[in-house]
Description:
The protein has 17 helices and 17 strands.
Amino acid sequence: MQLGxxxxxxxxxxRVADMVAADIRAGRLRPGERLPPQRAFARARGIAAxxxxxxxxxxxxxxxxxxxxxxxxxxxAAEKPPSPALAEPSDARVDLELSYPVVPxxxxxxxxxxxxxxxPDILHAALGPIGVKGTERAREAAASLLDAPGWKPxxxxxxxxxxxxxxxxxxxxxxxxxxxxxxxxxxxYPVIKGIASRLGxxxxxxxxxxxxxxxxxxxxxxxxxxxxxVYVQPTLHNPYGTTMPWQRxxxxxxxxxxxxxxxxxxxxxxxxxxxxxxxxxxxxxxxTVLIDSLSKRLxxxxxxxxxxxxxxLAGRVAAALRSGGWAPAGFxxxxxxxxxxxxxxxxxxxxxxxxxxxxQRIAAERLAGFxxxxxxxSYFCWWDLPAxxxxxxxxxAAGRRGLAVTPAAAFVVxxxxxxxxVRLGLASPPSxxxxxALTVLAEIAAGTPEDAAVD
Length: 455
């Protein structure tokens, strides 16, 4: 494999990266081809090992290569227009990336609640400006919705945002200054990466095991350089779909108290577990900002974010939400409060729990024999791909069949190599389409990348 004359690029890693990028664009380095180990690359080009490392980092930053644990660095699979796989029309694309569950029954359930808000007096009030503290009625409704076994939030501690993402951003902005460090699980919700980047916050990946975030790893990271806070998903972790047991929650709460550290607890998917464990906030109420929203419970177009904040932090979080422009819309606050009070939100949640269980049964049947992990109540699952598949190659092969899935790299924090895995969102397509799509994915995984390339 000829990569060009590298003798002129002894110290300029960007020029070296430019030359490798040119070879990739020209097809001299093909999608899926493995680059040499960094030390071998450095020896062959007559450059320092540190320069070779920076070259590989630069190529990964440009999206041209991807690293995988124990395997090396590979040229990314090229983007190809998807071709139809399941049914007409020919431009059909089955989305197994996003997880925004919308069930047929919810339209009728939500329509009934609109009659009240369309009364002229209520509508007039709902169309006016509203602050992050909402109204007393809204705070009481939200507190009742978020009530969980072993924990009942106080209504005065509830703040509101336009959606859950904005509530998370407000909590991060309040707790971690620009240039500060935020601990996160080593695989985490991708949106937190964008939030941290915009706020100038450095994410610190923390090791996990089968029970979730490791408290000892949190303590070690904080000792090396103080963390401003830690963002954690104890219930139905995204992307794994796993739930942290009570014993681990208790250990994590004790660590927060010992370190005098705050946690941002993301419970946006927790409603899917009707009898799930008590939130981390119940064990460390003075050290936890709990985040939830209506986007998954109802629909993405009916969003409202909640932040339950310890009293000493209320002013800081409220100020961050206001300065970020993340206050809720009055209409959404009034509509959401009504749907909560009337029991509509819980009724929709009940339907969605049954729907998710049905979709998980489909996934278990169509992906039987593969290494898939999730929760029977989750709308997504994590698939450790069989050899010789790599995540990027599998995503490309699925895309050629009209199926969109998410590679593990989307959830990786920092420069760590991505696992050979994908996340499957089960919520978007109709159940029949989901079943056919998973059958196609199983067929792809049972073959080889070479087979898929000629399909």
